[in-house]
Amino acid sequence: MYASLYTYINLLTNSNMDVVCRIAVFLTLAFIIAVILMEPALGIRLNRVKESSSQTLPGEEHLVTSLPGQPAVDFKHYSGYVTVNEKNGRALFYWFYEATSHPDEKPLVLWLNGGDKRRVLHVSGPGCSSVGYGATQEIGPFIVDSNGHGVKYNPFSWNREANMLFLESPVGVGFSYSNTTSDYNILDDEFTANDSYTFLHKWFLKFPSYRKRAFYIAGESYAGKYVPELAELIHDRNNDPSLYINLKGILLGNPETSDGEDWRGMVDYAWSHAIISDETHRIIGRTCDFDSNDPWSNSTCADAVDELLRQYSEIDIYSLYTSVCTVDSASSDDKSKQYKLMRSSSRKMPRIMGGYDPCLDDYAKAFYNRPDVQKALHVSDGSHLKNWSICNTKIFQGWPDTKPSVIPIYKKLIAAGLRIWVYSGDTDGRVPVLSTRYSLSSLGLPITKSWRPWYHEKQVSGWFQEYEGLTFATFRGAGHAVPIFVPSNSLAFFAAFLLGESLPSAR
Ligand SMILES: *[C@@H]1O[C@H](CO)[C@@H](O)[C@H](O)[C@H]1NC(C)=O
Ligand SMILES: *[C@@H]1O[C@H](CO)[C@@H](O)[C@H](O)[C@H]1NC(C)=O
Ligand SMILES: *[C@@H]1O[C@H](CO)[C@@H](O)[C@H](O)[C@H]1NC(C)=O
Ligand SMILES: *[C@@H]1O[C@H](CO)[C@@H](O)[C@H](O)[C@H]1NC(C)=O
């Protein structure tokens, strides 16, 4: 190369050349020198592109690079839409955080929030956002700041232990949508599981390095139904090797499990925690058949349950011993409307929306409706905005009757050898610890390690019991969304779950 440079310089100084030719030669020379000088830098850049393209290039377009107010972090995160149905134009929104360290070695965990948040009372099931709740109030690395202007770092984020994928499902929840409005009328559990399943396969095309990774599904509340249902679908389809997903287990927090047991537990819990009187408790016990299709056809039962809901509406049903958010817009007007709704749809088990800090809900709403946030998350171009709300009440109200119990699915998944852990914050009145214990005891599993405390930082964090095929644990003093109340304990618990290790039973 240096020899040819010498030739060029000779050419340039050769007085026989005309001016145009000299300029051309000079420019060529300048270019060659520039290339020589920049070669190291260019070389590195080319190598980098090569490395990352072999891993995650299809998903790279979803890399989030400029989330407003985001603290600096050294892991990558991605968000955007995955089309799950081309014909009808259905797209689900996800937000994915790589693990904070060694993402290549850590499992992949899908987090689902069913519905069921908010302290207002409501009929029917799901419709809330995993991004608004799970990711930005509970276990994600960025928690919405109380001023709604940005996010702050969560040092107890679950992406310290796993690669965390948050999915807004079904369509109509959060940013997820369908271009075919009639789709919104046919949503149910099975539709949701189908779309989530399609989502996973499409997502793996974008992030092929996760295709064979150890995979877990986690969630809370109404996801108590969604999670086992999706796990069952994956398990069934895994018979086809080309569709194989390396599902290892499921994790469920204060999960709706079995309607009859859930109601019995809720009533007994309210009584034993001094929310209702002995008389009300007795009337419910005598007149409510929670295993029937329509317990509310007995008006004495319906009135007594209304009384229970009325008492809970005065406090935060999701966290009995904390204050309510007094700036919440869910006024008492709203609540009486909810009662009427509940009573008018007597064919259904009333399902009640959940919630921990309704104030946080408002901060999340402000944040996700910002043009710059939507642009950064690849939701919109920043001018044609999407309308984001934390829960879609239409979906709540329209949700058809679903499986009354997922206990049969538990049995199937236990038989398949999947790891199943269930946890319960013991100050939640909505899906209280008693509901979960009633449901689990109906499984009749043999006990392998009897009831005992588990410890975190030298304190009793709760109690646990191990069964053949299932672990159950409580969180002492935590409400419905456990990680909000005890973030450090929950992260330790999550780590134990992923390792499949017993919780620490000594100080
Ligand atoms: C829905 O319709 C909009 C507007 O026509 C289009 O830009 C978008 O790609 C469609 N979504 C899907 C998932 O097909
Ligand atoms: C879910 O998918 C299965 C298999 O493709 C199909 O038979 C079923 O009808 C789907 N259910 C809904 C509600 O879309
Ligand atoms: C409700 O159920 C109880 C117990 O079965 C029964 O005695 C009572 O008559 C029922 N009340 C109504 C209004 O159906
Ligand atoms: C967003 O939703 C609110 C409340 O439902 C509604 O008033 C508003 O018009 C919607 N905005 C857009 C752009 O759809």
UniProtKB/TrEMBL annotation:
- What Gene Ontology cellular component terms go with this record? extracellular region; vacuole
Instruction: Keyword check for Ligase, yes or no.
Output: no
Q: What Enzyme Commission number does this protein have?
A: 3.4.16.-
Example GO biological process:
proteolysis
Task: Report the locations given in the UniProt record.
Answer: Secreted
Q: Which ranges form a coiled coil?
A: none
Q: Which Pfam families match?
A: Peptidase_S10
Against Gene3D superfamilies, the record matches this protein to: 3.40.50.11320, 6.10.250.940, alpha/beta hydrolase
Q: What class of enzyme is it?
A: hydrolase
What are the GO MF terms of this UniProt record? serine-type carboxypeptidase activity
Chief site of localization = secreted
InterPro entries, alphabetized? AB_hydrolase_fold, Peptidase_S10, Ser_caboxypep_ser_AS
Transmembrane stretches, by residue range?
A: 20-38
Q: Which UniProt keywords apply?
A: Carboxypeptidase, Disulfide bond, Glycoprotein, Hydrolase, Membrane, Protease, Secreted, Signal, Transmembrane, Transmembrane helix
Family in the record: Belongs to the peptidase S10 family.
Q: What is this protein called?
A: Carboxypeptidase
Organism from which the protein derives:
Turnera subulata
Gene that specifies this protein: SCPL31
